[in-house]
Amino acid sequence: MDWREGGGTRWLEAALPGARAIFSTRLGGVSEGPYSSLNLGILTGDERDRVVANRQRLCAATGIDPEGVVIARQVHGARIVVHEGPQSPPSWPAPGADPPEADGHLVDRSGLAALVLVADCLPVALAGREGLAMLHCGWRGLAAGIVGAGAEAVGASAAAIGPGIGACCYEVGEEVLAAFAPLGPGLAAGRMLDLAAVARRLLERAGVERIEVAGVCTRCELETFFSHRGEGPDTGRQAGIVVGSG
Ligand SMILES: [Zn+2]
What is the pLDDT of residues 83-113, one digit of tens each? Predict the structure, then answer.
């Protein structure tokens, strides 16, 4: 996974078979205050026009067609939507239309861009013979089986785990630790859970051979990323995107 820059922003990018996985930062947008500056989410109080401008900026910088971006109202579940064409009405370039409730997207490599919004949760991109998937992975979604469902749906051979809260900053309760106890040891130190290690183990169990991990903690890197735990509910959202590389 490498840092890229353009259009005034920076992002992390990983090459997957026939696809790009892109993980955005908070750098180079037009939002202010707690949303400073490349906030991509409309649900936490930022001005809609600024979010629209930020979404355009990210798409222009990364070479993604905004009309081909598919999103969902994320609910920390394991549901994955299969997209066979652009969303209608298009929720990404023109926020307002209520997208479906889901935490994962399955697309082909024709140029549709599957996108999830995150601020501590892990964005996980998958590529396989049946297509591409982008997953929003908090502990609830991981416990509900979203990684296995996504890997199976695309026949995943490769994955990229983007920036999220690290084991350094993610103290959880006993019920969360208990949810992952069946996966075996090495995923937590005391109450500090390593969410990326959980995702990696689930990917390995699903037969995914090639796994790249950003290894960046969003709460430690507040200059670069939005963090729900670091900044509270009034913060922005960055994106994880997977799109065919043509
Ligand atoms: Zn940290």
Answer: 999 998 899 999 877 889 999 999 999 999 9
Ligand 1 centre distance from Cα of residue 220 (Å): 4
Q: What is the CA(214)–ligand 1 centre distance, in A?
A: 13
Tell me which residue of 41, 40, 18 sits closest to 111, measured CA to CA: 18
The domain that holds 39 is classified in CATH as: 3.60.140.10
- Tokens 């006993």 — which residue? 174
Instruction: Compute, in angstroms, the gap from residue 169 CA to the centroid of ligand 1.
Output: 4
- Measuring CA to CA, how many Å separate 118 from each of 184, 207, 209, 210? 27, 25, 25, 23
Supply the range of the domain harboring residue 229: 2-244
Peptide bond into 37 cis (omega under 30): yes
Give 164 Cα–ligand 1 centroid separation in angstroms.
Answer: 9
Q: Kindly state the greatest CA–CA separation across the chain.
A: 47
Ligand 1 center to 95 CA (angstroms): 32
* Total domain count, the chain: 1
pTM score over 0.85:
yes
Gap from CA of 217 to ligand 1 centroid (Å): 5
Q: Is 209 exposed, middle or buried (0-12, 13-18, 19+ CB in 10 A)?
A: exposed
Unique residue bearing structure tokens 């019920």: 175
